[in-house]
Design brief:
Blueprint (H helix, E strand, L loop, with lengths): L10 E6 L7 E5 L5 E6 L2 E6 L3 E7 L2 E6 L2 E5 L1 E5 L6 E7 L3 E13 L4 E8 H12 L6 H17 L9 E2 L16 H8 L4 E4 L2 E2 L4 E2 L27 H6 L2 E6 L1 H5 L6 H11 L9 E6 L2 E7 L7 E2 H9 L4 H8 L4 E3 L4
Parallel strand pairs: 1-12, 15-19
Antiparallel strand pairs: 1-11, 2-5, 2-9, 3-4, 3-8, 5-6, 6-7, 8-10, 9-10, 10-11, 13-14, 13-20, 16-18, 17-18
């Protein structure tokens, strides 16, 4: 069995809350803890559940805390030594999340851009907790952790202002899980391990439910990548994947004729992401509409999360699961 890798720490810059296009944020300290909010050369100490309010003001950020008010082009949040810390970030009336890391907030085209710099392993555990099938066993989560870590280390140029976002455009991230959670245990047990193809870490793709067979990149209209994804059977998903039905007008349905993932996503931006939730479907004309009948969710490439949970319940270890969904790869440590 592979031993976890003892690797140098790697930091990722994750853009958070971008879907909300926030014009104001609240940065709060946890009870009995303190964070330092820095605006230019000035600092505010926020402690014991207190919150600093950040507002968009022209092309700068205004900070208000009690009777103090500061303004700067960028506002940073860290501990007293400028290191990673725990904090809450909120968009009033919409969302609140807890993160561990260092935060930078600045103006970006009429909205506040919030970027959390966090340790790679913290990001992996957070994504595993957010992305995985509810109730997935430990070995399934280990497989997810290796795929997630591989994706983070091998994906390039996802965004210009930061490395990755907190949505499924990159990998879905919420707050870091409890150290006692299975997601945290899976991340720790596979620390530093990645998927290698011909000695190189691959940007491992995964999908919620493939519908019974995973797809190649060419099948969904994507350009070849560093790893030639193979189509493999997924027996549990074949019989247990969620079924769905959509009725579209012929012009909308024409986007789906080639099973292109790009076309499906373009249609999703117009009709909503649940309109055509996966890339495994058939089209049937019925009068003035086209019926789209599908099975599974997601693009269908790489690790199938529904099938992975079943394999783990059948006694497969994470390496066997990964070998099934990513043929001709090995689990190891990155060369650099």
């Amino acid at each position: 069995m592979l031993a976890p890798c003892v690797c140098a720490a790697r930091e990722l810059r994750i853009g958070v809350f971008g879907l909300f296009h926030p014009e104001r944020l609240v940065i709060s300290a946890l009870p009995a803890q303190t964070v330092i909010v820095t605006a230019g050369t000035q600092q505010i100490v926020v402690s014991d559940g207190g919150g600093a309010f950040l507002y968009l003001e022209g092309n700068q950020v205004r900070v208000r805390f009690n009777d103090e008010s500061l303004v700067a082009s960028e506002v940073d949040v860290a501990d007293r030594m400028g290191r990673a810390t725990d904090f809450l970030i909120s968009i009033p009336g919409k969302i609140t999340r807890r993160f561990r890391g260092k935060l930078a907030v600045k103006c970006q085209i009429d909205e506040l851009e919030a970027v959390v710099e966090m340790d790679l392993e913290t990001a992996v555990a957070s994504a595993v907790a957010a992305e995985s099938v509810p109730g997935a066993p430990l070995e399934a989560l280990k497989a997810q952790a290796v795929a997630t870590r591989s994706y983070y280390l091998a994906s390039l140029l996802r965004h210009t202002q930061f490395d990755f976002c907190d949505t499924t455009h990159c990998q879905f991230i919420r707050e870091a899980p409890s150290p006692h959670s299975l997601a945290a245990q899976a991340t720790a047990a596979t620390h530093g391990l990645v998927l290698l193809y011909e000695g190189t870490t691959i940007p491992a793709l995964f999908t919620g439910s493939c519908g019974g067979r995973t797809r190649t990149l060419a099948e969904i209209g994507l350009a070849p990548g560093p790893y030639p994804y193979f189509s493999v059977p997924c027996n549990y998903c074949l019989h247990h994947a969620p079924h769905w039905l959509a009725r579209l007008d012929p012009k909308e349905a024409a986007e789906l004729a080639g099973h292109s993932e790009g076309s499906r996503l373009r249609l999703g931006r117009i009709l909503g992401w649940d309109a055509v939730p996966g890339n495994n479907y058939e089209l049937q004309r019925e009068g003035e509409v086209v019926v789209v009948e599908g099975r599974g969710k997601g693009h269908g490439v790489g690790l199938c999360q529904l099938g992975t949970a079943w394999m783990a319940n059948q006694g497969f270890g994470f390496q066997g699961i990964l070998a099934h969904y990513y043929p001709n790869t090995v689990v190891g440590t990155p060369s650099n």
